[in-house]
Amino acid sequence: MSKPPRLTLPPTARAYLLDTGRGGFAVHEAGEPVRGTALLLPGFTGSKEDFVALLEPLAAAGYRVLAVDGRGQYQSPGPREEDAYALEELARDVLAQVRALDAGPVHLVGHSLGGLIARAAVLRDPAPFASLTLLSSGPAAIAEEQQARTKLLVAALEALREDMPGVWAAMRAHDPQDASPDSGELTAFLRERWLETVPEQLIATGRALICEPDRVAELAAVALPKLVLSGTVDYAWPVPLMDDMARRLGAARVVVEGAEHSPNAENPQVTAGALASFWDSCCRA
């Protein structure tokens, strides 16, 4: 899971509920649309807070930036029905969010699972988008080792969905022994985020990560500027696989040094610079 480097919003940002034709979605927003507007979608077990360190530098670059909790994810409400969290349903949510922004073409960024959702939204209707960035997100299902871990998590949630604290405790008990300890504030936030996320959302999206087919050829046929951005190491999708996906897409490619699966949290300044540079190039095209 992504671990935000900080939790406090910059002074220029605000948190609110974005009203759309498909319900309300919790967002963090910063900046004015001098050069454009961007919508950032978090990954599996993640939330809008994963992008908090990107808000200020992207706003300073002239972009209105919104990071959003998806349906049933942390502070966005959602039903207790697994079908509500199919990728196509989540893609429709993204399209509704863009319509609610009323901002013209929007730069869409999807981190990890968010990349699969972003791809589904673009394939459904590319018209509202100025560009697509797949951030640490691959061409199809996650790597086999991660599939095995995710299957265990999905099975635990299916059996214990009414005991989210118990599942959380079991997950943390399996953390690597040599992992750096989180601060008390971050530990409390991660637990709260887990407990506030609808278990059916985690079950359905976990299955999507295990089973998603390769849709790169479909996406390559969409005439939209694309960027594939990752760290130097990735446990969900190997970096060479993302290199190949970028080639197949005809996409720009950026590898962020000092980052792994979450460049947005692990090296936000470089990540923000790469995003702004890519979006600027789309404006000049």
From TrEMBL:
Task: Output the Gene3D superfamilies linked to this UniProt entry.
Answer: alpha/beta hydrolase
Name the domain of life this protein comes from.
Answer: Bacteria
Record GO biological process = glycerolipid catabolic process
- Pfam families assigned: Abhydrolase_1
Q: Which GO terms describe its molecular function?
A: triacylglycerol lipase activity
Entry keyword set? Hydrolase
Please list the residue ranges annotated as the AB hydrolase-1 domain: 39-185
PANTHER family per the UniProt record, alphabetical: AB HYDROLASE-1 DOMAIN-CONTAINING PROTEIN, HYDROLASE, ALPHA/BETA FOLD FAMILY PROTEIN
UniProt name for this protein:
Alpha/beta hydrolase
Species in which this protein is naturally found: Streptomyces subrutilus
